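Ligand-bound model needed. zinc ion.
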Amino acid sequence: MKLYYDFHIHTALSPCADNSMTPNNIVNMALLNELDAIAITDHNTAENVEAVMEVAKEKDIIVIPGMEIETKEEIHILGLFLDLESVYNVQNKVYSMLPTIKNKSNIFGSQLILDKNDNIVKELDRILLTATTLSLNQVVDLIKNNNGIAIPAHIDRPSYSILSNLGIIPPDLGTLTLEISRFSKLDKYRKKYNNYIIVQSSDAHELGYIGITKNELEVESKSIQSIFKSLQ
Ligand SMILES: [Zn+2]
Ligand SMILES: [Zn+2]
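Prediction:
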């Protein structure tokens, strides 16, 4: 069967994302756009994933726990995980490898931790929008060692991407999946990187972008396990 996905969505916890990116707004917008599966991928954190999953519990949509980790080379890598426990393990490690500088919310934007009713639980004080001290290989290993799939993010973009920063996809990277942004054509990248599985997601920071790419993934059944099987 086919399912419609968007595996790269930020919540109001990412300082650069709109404060309207709340658990209920995200799930409802995804349903409105007839998506079957979404992933929540905030910058270097997963503290809003659980609330989005709780909202989705009663609804016909899969929410994959995820995170967008910035390596010390300033490359963005998406981690998609099988369960919350795994994403929290990774979050602990990422937090320990992030500088403990305070976020300047007036400059970078606020970092809101929300509950399943979209109430603000607290504002995260530490800065998220910065590089960890983990290398590219360390980030890929960290994700893979925690039931995750590592996906170099928006490889077609001129900044914070593996191609812009390294010029190539290292052959020993240990991942089979690559992501392109909403600005490029899937066909072109599938031809060019035909040894890889190429996915395309919205990287939504505002509600209007959720599901804008609306691509299909062939899966055995509508489950996280099947999605993971199709992505690696
Ligand atoms: Zn990014
Ligand atoms: Zn992103």
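The chain has one domain: 2-231.
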